[in-house]
Design brief:
about 140 residues; alpha+beta; three-stranded antiparallel beta sheet; about 25% helix; globular
């Protein structure tokens, strides 16, 4: 992970897929981790318009749990409301271990957005949230 810069990526993991977000802040790393997640679900994340706003909150016992819980909240809202998201504005409180966020997306149009891979949930496998070389890294494996 030399030469890190803000952004996101996915990585292979046996039968599942890893998601990783990088950022100058925890907020940015969580946001980019969510982009990595939704890049798996749809074929082209750039086609998802940020038309509707939803508010999502998650809490946990540590930062790693908070990242996993937040991704699972995103998946739950996406599934329950048949929506996909492309813009994320999380506010991570390290003190309270809560993430409050606005997320933006639109109803899932499988013809326009395409169908990627179904993600069942974020897991604690290889999960971590830490600062490396001045950038926050938030990652975990998602069950597909």
């Amino acid at each position: 992970m030399e030469g890190l810069s803000p952004g996101w990526e996915t990585f292979d993991h046996v039968a599942d897929i890893g998601v990783r977000g990088f950022g100058r802040s925890l907020d940015e790393a969580f946001s980019n981790g969510a982009k990595a997640l939704f890049s798996i679900i749809v074929e082209n994340l750039d086609l998802v318009r940020a038309k509707e706003e939803k508010r999502i909150e998650a809490s946990s016992f540590d930062l790693v749990g908070l990242f996993v819980a937040w991704l699972n909240e995103l998946l739950a809202i996406s599934d329950l409301e048949s929506m996909v998201f492309s813009r994320f504005e999380p506010r991570v409180s390290q003190r309270d271990l809560v993430v409050s966020s606005k997320v933006f997306g639109e109803p899932w149009d499988k013809k326009r957005h395409g169908v990627g891979i179904e993600v069942k949930g974020a897991t604690f496998s290889e999960a971590r949230v830490e600062k490396i070389n001045g950038l926050w890294v938030a990652q975990c494996i998602v069950d597909v």
